[in-house]
Amino acid sequence: MRAIVLEKFGGLDSLVYRDVPEPEPELGHAVIEVKGFGKSCPGGEFPVGAKVAALMGGLGRTINGSYAEYTRAPVSNVASIDADLPWAELAAIPETFATAWTCLFRNLDLAKGQVLVIRGATSSFGQAALKLAVNAGARVIATTRSRERFALLEKLGAARCEIERRDLSKHLPEAKQVDAVLDLVGNSVVLDTLAMLRRGGRSCLAGWLGGLDPIPDFNPLLQMPSGVYLTFFGSFVFGTPGFPLSDVPLREIAADAAAGRLDVKPARVFRFDEIREAHRVMEANEAVGKMVVVRD
Ligand SMILES: NC(=O)c1ccc[n+]([C@@H]2O[C@H](COP(=O)([O-])OP(=O)(O)OC[C@H]3O[C@@H](n4cnc5c(N)ncnc54)[C@H](OP(=O)(O)O)[C@@H]3O)[C@@H](O)[C@H]2O)c1
Predict the structure, then answer these.
(1) Residue 102: in which H helix or E strand, if any?
(2) Which CATH superfamily is domain 95-236 in?
């Protein structure tokens, strides 16, 4: 089969197409035709030809991922999805929407009518969360560093937009009244995020758009507000004990998309043979939303 391989550290020219052996069936795993039909699953968890979505479980990290015609994923990280959607839209759902849903409805326990701040809302993750939260009846305040992107976020249902800044809590009229924050900017604003929550309010730290530097001189006694919750979610736990994929309503999300109740359309779609251009766009921050590669 054809696969896209990162042959060495470096720039876009390190991404090359190679012929590699197809993954063999293995117990506890499903062999999947990427953006096609499930091929084989010796344990019988999925019938041959089932339409499935796979996420995490080491894909693309500790095991080969979806940059190929076929992949093999642990069955704990595979879910069947039968919605009638184009492959490009189906491919946009698993990682982004499963993670956004879990952050909103597990970590943040978001409820109708609550005020939610999404920091880093123009990111692909942020946009998915914004759509899910608006559909759930939350009032969303969305942040971006650029005023020109307010219109995009308002179109997706944001009640208001704010310019992302390190001291946002000092400029937010709703400070100390916010029910929940989905913080995708991360370590550089963790404490500022906590400062905008009401008593009992929750923050979910799930992105690091502002960088991975640790919080300098973190001293909870001096810096943390009382009575607020700081939680964390990393999608790498999907499929592990305590975080079964069945917890996430992926089928419902896909059904909502197919019925027109939820827009999962990626911002940019690339062909399999356009991988270098896809990575260039990603690294240049040009996509403003989810990017998907489909096989013809
Ligand atoms: N916890 C998890 O399981 C999980 C899963 C997936 C992704 N993530 C994380 O979530 C974040 C978003 O991922 P993504 O793939 O959706 O990103 P993405 O689509 O590539 O996000 C790009 C957007 O991030 C914003 N941004 C870039 N640098 C920023 C900065 N210094 N401060 C604030 N905003 C900045 C920009 O928005 P503006 O220019 O409009 O400000 C840009 O449009 C990443 O940190 C990623 O690692 C976490």
Answers:
(1) helix 94-102
(2) NAD(P)-binding Rossmann-like Domain (3.40.50.720)
